[in-house]
Protein 1
Amino acid sequence: MEANGTRRTKLPLASGLVADLLHKGSGPPLLFLHGSYGRSWPGLLDGLAEKFTVYAPLSPGADEPDELNSFDGFSDLALFYDDVLRALSVDTVVVVGHAFGGMVAAEFAAHFPERVSSLVLVGPLGLWMDTSPVADIHSTYPAKLPALLFADPESAAAAEVMRPPSPAQTGEFMLARALAQGAATHFYWPIPDRELKRRLYRISAPTLLVWGEEDRVVAPAYAERFAAGIPARSKIVRIPGAGHYAHIEQPGAVLREILAFTG
């Protein structure tokens, strides 16, 4: 058992790959897909675990770069998560994704609409507007990242995400973050437009679009663009006092919106 009370499982898949899952809770299944900074277990997931069985898989390649040889694009990622659900004997699931994970969640919901009962996208990547380009966090000078990612770069939430590791952890931490970012950028860098807009019409799940009002990475204007492309019922929620990490800066507000939306 992990320090936060979650359990970790190495789940063999039919493809021959192995999914690394953190999971906690009971109730209907919920799949949480993390962003490009790597997997964590934010407080939001503890709240969700009171109602759902939360599964938080590590994105393929985030700890074993050779896994990326099995993935050419988002179709392969969608198949990977379908294999995960098959291995878990799960038919339908609530899917929540942040940033890169939100892009993957939308792709999964488009590829396997019958699998997704509700979809929650928190500041997702995946679309592109020339009038408001998505910021490239990977080429941003590290000292400027907190102001880009958070409404309040001095907040506890910013410290949680950006806190440097202890000297004993530095090498391991830096390697883990580099691998996670490398795995994510394998799919979407330098511009996160992989024609998702052409597939949004396949999403049939009710969709909650959560945006921090001060998101400086993916501007809140993208919420309307996503909503316009998804024919299913959608709801846009903007979270005050939050930037790109709305689910960490304002976890209580985001949790209430997700629980209300998923009924």
Protein 2
Amino acid sequence: MNAEFRNQLFRASAGTGKTYRLSAHFVGLLVRGVAPDRILATTFTRKAAGEILSRVLQRLVQVAEDDRAAAELAKNVGFPVRSEHARAVLPGLARQIHRFQVRTLDSH
């Protein structure tokens, strides 16, 4: 795997912006062409896992619809992102949503 996409660990307490940061990171990877099944997030609860997945989808749609959201994402991920990138990713992600891995630490 490209060193640019190596494993990363995000650790933070409740209320510190983990979900925001994770969703930006995930959307950034998706628009760069990383397949959904190559991305994994683990968290402690099913509720948190659902929230992460929901935020990723919401953010991807926002970026697809709004150039300002794309510019904001670009600042967060450190490379250019355009709305067209997100629009290109959405259909494939919808078809492969079952391959997107947001899990609890105890899931198999």
